[in-house]
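Table 4 source record.
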Amino acid sequence: MPIPLALLVPTALAATCERGVPLDELHQALRLARTAWVVMDRESFEQAVAERDRLLACISEPIEPALAQQLHMHEALAWSLERRDDLCRGAFRAILSQDPTWTLPLELAPEHHRLREAFEAVQAQPYTELRRDFEVPAGSALLVDGVRARDVPADRPFLVQVLDGSGTVLRTHYFVPGSDPAEGLAGWLGGAPDVQGGAVLEPEGSSRRGSQVLLGSAAGAALLAGGIYAVAAVRAAGLEDGDVACDQLPQARTQVNSLVVASAGLGALGTGLVVAGLVLRF
């Protein structure tokens, strides 16, 4: 039975985003993520992925199939870090369903890399895509992986956009289907929480990426705390060595104490961010 989309909220983008994001900004985030992956800078990669997700939710232009493929590939990279081989295979299946000739670049996954093994497993397995019909109301259009459609994949990830009659993008979401993806997607399009098996689903990766942002902030706070403490230690050593004039000692001691307090405060902040990040992740 087709799933109706009559509850579509036409002001969704304006209600959740301060501005519409052009495709150029999304491309830039993808380039940064890819570069960080190639040089094995995990922190920068995760920050770029978090930025990409923020931009994607507010994108103001239709996404073409080639860009949808890039998004699937970057999802596979992110899931590989979490050792979610099943989701990596789903992302590769999404790419190959659009372009069976696509190959995984060696710079992203050399021979015997777990990501390449996941890709080769998908290549070797015959695949017939399952899809679910949607009843798209008059005046609206559905883009699935950059292609107009009246149905969605039922057994692999997909990028979905809703457009109004003028071609304006109303909502964009990277959806990972579960036991009944059509019902979950219909709930999201209607402005209600995504519901699957009685549980409320957050948009894909929101807790994971939120955790990454918190942990990245914690690392930054820790580095800054260490730097401030190092400065305090140097100045304290100068006091002990007699490098400071007697009339300047009170002011110098106050500065050292202030630096130590600031360092301790940043250290406590970093600890709190780590705890929050771990709670959000698990």
